[in-house]
Amino acid sequence: MTYYEVAVAAPLFDTLTYTQPPEEREVVPLGIRVLVPLRNRLVTGYIISSSNTPPELSYPIKALAERLDTAPLFPEQLIPFFRWLAAYYHYPLGEVIQTALPSGLRAGSGYEIILTETGRQQLPVALTTVKKRAAWMDRLLAKGAIQPGTTKAIRTKPAMQRLLRTWQTEGWIEIKEVLVNSAIKAKKETVVRLNSKLQEALPLYQSIEIPEKKKQTTTTLPLPLGIQEELKKSERKTLELFFQHCKGSPVLPRSELTRQYSGAGQALHSLADAGLISLEEQRVYRDPFGKVPPFFPQPETLTLEQQQVIGTLKEALDKGGFQPFLLHGVTGCGKTEVYLRATEHCLKAGKSVLILVPEIALSSQLEGHFYSRFGDILAILHSGIAKGERFDQWQRILQGKVRIVIGARSAVFAPLAKPGLIIVDEEHEPAYKQDDGLRYNGRDLAVLRAKFAECPILLASATPSVTSFYHAEQGKYRLLSMTKRVHDQAMPEVRIIDLRDKKQSPQSSFFSEQLLSALAQNLEKRQQSLLFVNRRGYAAFMLCRDCGHIIQCRHCKVSLTLHHKDNRLLCHYCGYSTTPNLICPDCGSSSIIGLGVGSERIEQEVRQVFPNAKVVRLDSDTTRDRKAYLRILEQVRNQEVDILVGTQMVAKGLHFPAMTLVGIVWADSGLGLPDYKAAERSYQLLAQVTGRAGRGEHPGKVIIQTHQPQHYVIEFAQSHAYQKLYTQELALRKALAYPPFGRLVNIRFSGKEEADVQKTAKAAASFLRSILTAQKTTEQSVEILGPAPAPLAMIRQRFRWQLLLKSGTPEFLHYLCDLLLENKKKFCGKDVRMTLDVDPENML
């Protein structure tokens, strides 16, 4: 008998063992989804090992309930990778695997409510006495059953549970457990295949020259003798259409024929009955690209620095084995071409390549370069494409039909059996960190994945993270440098405007005279400009001038942002929105004004000052889908845009040679955040935005508006002095034992009642401190900060407190986390949620 180790998609940290089902004769492969019994329900699980030796367990071993896949969903080589993730991030292994897979692949059991014959007679009368008659009750009477999706919502309400129990006791309904299958399935279409005799006629038809105007009229088909005479008119026309559109192939989608001729459907069945064709089901893959990405030609020459870096990477690829590289290359130095040449070398060796980008927008930009060079051996994986498309991309990768994968952080789980090269673009970006569920860092997992795959990895950035650059200095990574732009273009000239001394412009309250003048000059020269503001919306918050009240989200302790176009106040944390109220809820005054600035407000101001300019805004409000984003990029690339207004989406990865001016409307937004990485991130953002200017034949100019011109971040951004920023930040972190000199775990508690959350956080802190006291661990080796309210003290109606663990010994930190989870029930009630964030990026 075969015993299977199964990781269930449930909050269980231990794996479970199941036996072979009686009807299953073959050994079920690793990586297969199965349904397994767990307590009194069926759940999805993943087979991660098998053995013929029965394990010693404290529970009776049950059989697998059902096999859900014909082939594995992930290669066996990923299983050790998943196990490591589960241990490092203290997350259930089954839920790790579920996170890795495309959404929509979860199966399980649900409950169906079925109306009995007695119920059909008695329930209509009983419903007349129900005070609040829900819509599902009438649906039950009309259809005779309620499906699991609706039943799940009904059964969460205690009053409805009591009502269902009463009806069940009366014999009016049955509640039956049923299998709920995956939401996403393979897409199939019917194709028409010619029989062998008709296939012989294909070359003859291809040799006949038929004028275009006669292609829709009857032609003489070169069919074998005896077939022509037997065909009906509709069958002949259908075959003619097939021969015209098949391009020499014996197979054509049925829809291609029925779309052009309404009689084709019946004719095809007749032809199939006669044995002249066969109708078959064939797997088709949904195309995420839409139209073909723009073409980017290969440059004729490489810079000396590009040649040196590419040469080093080729040597590493030929040698093989795990080799981590950090490429520090200034903006505009040609890093993308390095990626392309390294990929080309890897493909020639018969290996595959995985490329990570921090945001979907950057993926869309990079796709065009790789599609231009390598064609359709490319797959993309990110949440910007539909679920069905993502499922198909996953299957194409799994089946070896593609050799290049580009995607956001979740693409680190791409089912490549053994990649030959991994590239992480903009490795410094905090967007690589997942903020909920499995809180993994895509960049860090890429390094781990390369280690498991024994292949080189290239981390690249114009502004590397302090931690990565420190690793390079210490020899953990090999440092590669590109200090010059392509074609020896100069870095843009950066000018600082002190907003404290700014004279009020008669034209705008947000732009200095210097920035307005530079914009006007650029318009005269027919060159493009970029205005950057790190916030979307129209006004950052709504304030009552009489009492000072700020309009806040009713679910979060944060201000609502005004979105002028939609006339809505929107919470950027929970999505709550409401119509702006011009009356203060505190004092009743009508003196409500919008303060702060967002990209929508800047767009409006620019249009007012320069009414003849072509102005476009690029932020998450104007690019709700991938197509909208690509459309705006194409407009800018074709110089159909004079001034581009944008948020972080415009800060990196974009290459517009005609863009010569960058204006940073307010550079101070991130400098005051309560986060030890605030200065580093502010510099990175400013440096990246600055790098959009002067990438063509004309020199670039940058104007930074700030209230803190003497802040070291602003000074270093002006002089493009990354090394100085790194040195200063490293000294500060060393003094405080922050990464890279220490490791962090942020423990967050949240709940509906703040008193319960505070009590739980304090109890957890006391528990951890008692461990340190018992083991006589010094304060220098482990530091516990807090507990304290989180900077964002309430999100989605849940109060938040947090506890920060800091230590130079990661093993001991993980030991404390394990103890905390094992003893969670002692201090954490069911109304308070505890989450562990290992290596946190966001301290808010």
TrEMBL record:
Q: Does the keyword Hydrolase apply?
A: yes
* Taxonomic lineage from the root: Bacteria, Pseudomonadati, Thermodesulfobacteriota, Desulfobulbia, Desulfobulbales
Q: Would I find Methyltransferase among this entry's keywords?
A: no
Per its UniProt record, what InterPro entries does this chain match?
DEAD/DEAH_box_helicase_dom (IPR011545), Helicase_ATP-bd (IPR014001), Helicase_C-like (IPR001650), P-loop_NTPase (IPR027417), PriA (IPR005259), PriA_3primeBD (IPR041222), PriA_3primeBD_sf (IPR042115), PriA_C (IPR041236)
- State the source organism's domain of life: Bacteria
Cofactor: binding comment: Binds 2 zinc ions per subunit.
Q: What is this protein's name?
A: Replication restart protein PriA
Encoding gene (name): priA
CDD domains, alphabetized: DEXHc_priA, SF2_C_priA
